[in-house]
Write a structure and sequence with these properties.
With 333 residues, the protein is an alpha+beta fold. Helix content is 32%, strand content 20%. Strands 10-15-11-12-13-14 form a six-stranded antiparallel sheet. It has a three-stranded antiparallel sheet with strand order 1-2-3. It is rod-shaped, with a radius of gyration of 41 Å.
Length: 333
Amino acid sequence: MRSRLTLCALCLAILLMGFPFVINAAQVTHSVKRGDSLHALAKKYGVSVSHLKNVNSLRSNKLSLGQTIVIKDENERIAKKESRNRLSTKAIKAQVREREAQPVISENDDQFIEYRIKRGDTLDKIASRFNVEADELIESNNLTSRKNRKLSPGRTLLIPRITEEDDGSDNIVTFKSIAMKPWKNSDEKYMLVKVAKSFMGAPYKYGGNTLRGLDCSAYVKKIYEIFDVQLPRSAREQYQVGSRISREELAVGDLVFFKTRRYAKYPTHVGIFIGDGNFIHASSGKGRLGVKIDSLGSNYYSGAFIGATRIKSEDTSHGPEATQPTEKPSNNS
């Protein structure tokens, strides 16, 4: 039995002596013998001379007898792959950070501009940059909670579009008088108020024009459509319809206009006067979104008031109109 083991060991030793390289799981090596050169080894093992020099940290092509040359180093290959992966991951993260640092502005929408938030942005900074109010950003993006109002880099905000007409001039829009239709009878204007009040509580949505959400000008337009009057879509355009009147001349059914943007030189909000110093409108005020009644005498609306127009005139063909009671605001205001 021992003789067999000895014989096997001897055979294995002879075999190993016949092959000048050693193979293990991590490396392939070669023991240099007489006549070996880097070029010969490179050709024999299918690698390049530069590879052999790099793997073995050789500065010259000279080899010594018995020197162990690493042909392939699996550990090094894995290490290099991991290093490349790490570099790749770092590069990707750097690209993401770079994208986040650069604001992206897209203008492919009629009512909004898409803005990608960058580091350091705040609602006030963005509002100032685009000449809008911070409240408009909150409403347009449904930022109803503190969590939602956190501006994360890379997130997209909708910015209410400022029209090209907002050129910073000192003049408000030029008024153009348009022929008005008279009220059908003395009761029609009060019917308009009742219809307007039936919308009380409808939610506000910037750019919206349905009962699921509508803005101030869409609300006014929808009410007047019921009474056979087609108004333009925006408050700015509606300000050019009808005849200009003073605040002292206001009567039920007249439109009242306000400037709610600091930088705008034209009306940005509109409502319907309902009498007794009150008006009904689709409000975008903090915590009070939706169709509601407010007083023209309040500090905010008194200061923001910019003008009024009369859309439908009194019908004087049948003599003076009978005096009608003033419409009172509801308790929901």
